[in-house]
Amino acid sequence: GAVVSQHPSRVICKSGTSVKIECRSLDFQATTMFWYRQFPKQSLMLMATSNEGSKATYEQGVEKDKFLINHASLTLSTLTVTSAHPEDSSFYICSASPPGAMNTEAFFGQGTRLTVV
Amino acid sequence: AQTVTQSQPEMSVQEAETVTLSCTYDTSESDYYLFWYKQPPSRQMILVIRQEAYKQQNATENRFSVNFQKAAKSFSLKISDSQLGDAAMYFCAYRSAFRGGGADGLTFGKGTHLIIQP
Questions:
Q1: A32 vs B102: CB contact, 8 Å cut-off?
Q2: Is the torsion defined by CA of B107, B109, B39, A20 positive or negative?
Q3: Does A58 contact chain B (CB < 8 Å)?
Q4: Phi, psi of A100, deg, nearest 5
Q5: Quick one: which of A10, A31, A41, B45 is 20 to 30 A from A90 by CA?
Q6: Which residues of A touch B108 (CB under 8 A)?
Q7: Using alpha carbons only, how large is chain B's radius of gyration in Å?
């Protein structure tokens, strides 16, 4: 099957610093990856679409300067939370879909729990 | 914009019994995909079952089956012979097919917390 790996699984950072989260497709190439945010006991909300070789597309209400996305290769997308504040604390999950017959299915990373102190 | 509604925040079922989780959605598109994902305490999203809107036949995966009513925009999940390992959050999700299979992100419902009573 298709495997998406996310790193780190947990991170604690100080308020005002930046933190980078990586999302890798391990056994397929992904021209598009997606970043979601999940607050405790809530649903997943799509934040942005990461496009290889071009700018990310952000959902309405998501600050593009706060959440920087870089999709520099066909297997790696990164989400950088800049100048993090306690309200940015959340669970961040990425997903990708392999090409071909399985491309309608989204495969998810393990998620990253970000705590800003 | 599409919306997905799960009206049952929590459901409880006895082990070995059958439970149905409800999901409705709203869209103006004619071609799309619907999914049920399971999120256990580990928070890893696991695909349970998927349905292509153009298919009339309801999808089935072992103990899991759906009742897809396109006209009513309803997509319920039936879990038969419930097992303790089925306990998790279940999310209904919608994906547009307008730009091709993997081009769009998913829209999720708020989830249903399924409790299995031993």
A1: yes
A2: positive
A3: no
A4: 90, -150
A5: A31
A6: 43-45
A7: 14
